[in-house]
Amino acid sequence: MSAEKMPEIEMEDIPREECGVFAVARIDGNRDDSRDIPLGIQAYQGLLGLQHRGEDGAGISVFNTAQNSFFTQKDRGLITDVFAGGRYLTGFPEGSMALAHTRYGTGKKSGDAAEKAHPLGGKDSLFMIAMNGHIKELENRRGLTDTEYLVDIIDKRMIERGETFRESLLETLRSIGGGYSIVASDGKCLYAARDPWGFRPLFQQRTDKYHYFISEDSALGPLRDASTAEAKEVAPGMLWTVPLDGSDATSESIYHVEQTAMCSMEFAYFARPDTSYYGRSVQQIRMNIGRMLARMEDANFVADVVVGIPDSGSDTAIGYSDSTGIRYARAITKNPYVGRTFILANQELRASTAELKLNVTPAMVRGKDVVVVDDSVVRGTTGRVYVRKLRDAGARSVHLRIGFPPHMNPCVYGIDTGNPSELLARKKNLDIDEMAKYFGVDSLRFITEDGLREAIEWTPQSVEGTIERQLGGVCMACVNGEYPTDRKVFLPLPSARES
User: Fold this and answer.
1) Which of 86, 27, 81, 90 is nearest to 56 (CA)?
2) Could you tell me which of 29, 94, 32 has the C-alpha nearest to residue 225?
3) Is CATH 3.40.50.2020 the right assignment for the domain spanning 280-453?
4) Cα 146 to Cα 290: distance, rounded to the nearest angstrom
5) Contact 277/470 with Cβ under 8 angstroms?
6) Contact between residue 115 and residue 70 where contact means Cβ atoms under 8 Å apart
7) What are phi and psi of 456, to 5 degrees?
8) Residues whose CB is less than 8 angstroms from the CB of residue 166 and which lie 6 or more positions away in sequence, other chains included
9) CA distances (Å), origin 224, targets 33, 40, 272
10) Architecture of domain 16-263
């Protein structure tokens, strides 16, 4: 296929996460001293482990105990860009609490400016908030992002009603749905909240000196004090309060829903492979997705080699190879140093950059029948690129296997899949033959909804017997259109200040 006939590539053909959060507080109420790892550095280390959850901006806020104020640094760009590879961390004060955030946004969304990066603080009240996810009731309000609007509501309630920050935060969360994990502070306490459905992940870990909250437990690894303890998931629908005066942490319910519904894409794509959800290894889940795809093959299906699309498609390909006996080969390499395509200045640069990201080793596929395994398909543009490259490298036939059911609907809980009209499965009305023709493959199969649930559920728990590790429901609204929050009636939304 000639370059002129290749589809336009406006951005990477992947769904995008809406951020990662981190928070740490000293449980003895003291500020760090020269013997401790400064909280700003701990926040930076935690953020580095969450870079995959948001690549467009980052921020850290440290509460300066001596001055009773927050010192915040944030900007657009990768974490290492914002903090100059750690060189800018020396400016953070000694403190008792820190919040941090890495975010994703696009040029088409409000909130991409550096000043709108998280954490965000009140105009008239002392508090800071960072959020992962999306609250649909708060979107498109006077040009504010949902988090900005949440901050505005809380700020107004504290001034007009005389409420504490905890009261305003709790009552506002009780009136809304959506998917979120929130870390916040008013300088007196650290707060952490997870939505009642558990769409977005959140972990906590308490050591002798610190109390941590983070989007993924694997990101705590670099923190020496945290690496000695086991992280536990924050139960859906809970608000945790960690006083900065050394008092005991407490938790309370936001509200209860009948069935939790963690985002299925967290298991299949977003999380780091060394993360665990509900005590289940994400890497093992992805390998089981591959085994489930293998179960779906016809009895007479044969191929020479299995190839995974890095990064998250690789584990799925290994599981598929284990079950089918077809040899696994690392025939596709991802160049980690090629920049994000959507931020480039024009279409020609975006398309050429996408071409550079995935490279095929011809010796591994030449003259072979190849099964290529990918984690998901959104618009399908990247799939056409790697299928063509496999053909050009001499593959005799190409069979595409996808470890996530076809995307048919937009996510309203914190994942950006772009314009719904651009979703390939929606455009092709779920016609597998038409989608196979679009990709240029000899055969195409997606895992089913039931198959994905089974792959998640049959993954053994690393620790048994705790209720926090029991798997609840799994949200697949992007597949089946069944939005869990549609079944919940909310209180009237609090108003925010008028501009």
Assistant:
1) 81
2) 32
3) yes
4) 37
5) no
6) no
7) -70, -45
8) 186, 189, 191, 239, 241
9) 16, 15, 20
10) 4-Layer Sandwich (3.60)
What is d(CA 239, CA 373) in angstroms, rounded to the nearest whole number? 39
For the record, the structure tokens of 327 come out as 């040899």
Q: CA-to-CA distance for 153 and 163, rounded, in angstroms? A: 12
pLDDT, block means (10 residues), the chain with 499 residues: 36 61 90 80 94 89 91 90 79 90 62 70 95 85 84 95 96 94 97 96 93 94 72 94 93 93 92 91 95 96 96 94 97 76 45 74 97 92 91 98 94 80 89 96 96 88 53 87 84 64
DSSP conformation letters of 55-102: -SEEEEEEEETTTTEEEEEEEES-HHHHTGGGGGGGGSPP-SEEEEEE
Q: Where in the chain is the domain with CATH 3.60.20.10?
A: 16-263
Task: Say whether 19 is catalytic.
Answer: yes
**Which runs of E-coded beta strand occur in 325-472?**
332-334, 358-360, 369-374, 397-402, 415-416, 443-446
Tell me the two tokens of residue 8. 């336009």
Catalytic pick among 19, 411, 475, 478 = 19
Where in the chain is CATH 3.40.50.2020?
A: 280-453
Q: What is the pLDDT of residue 136?
A: 82
Angle between helix axes 347-357 and 381-392 (nearest 10 degrees) is 50
Place of tokens 């903090």: 83
What residues pair up with 19 in beta bridges, in sequence order? none
**What's the token pair of residue 54?**
């948001």
pTM of the model: 0.89
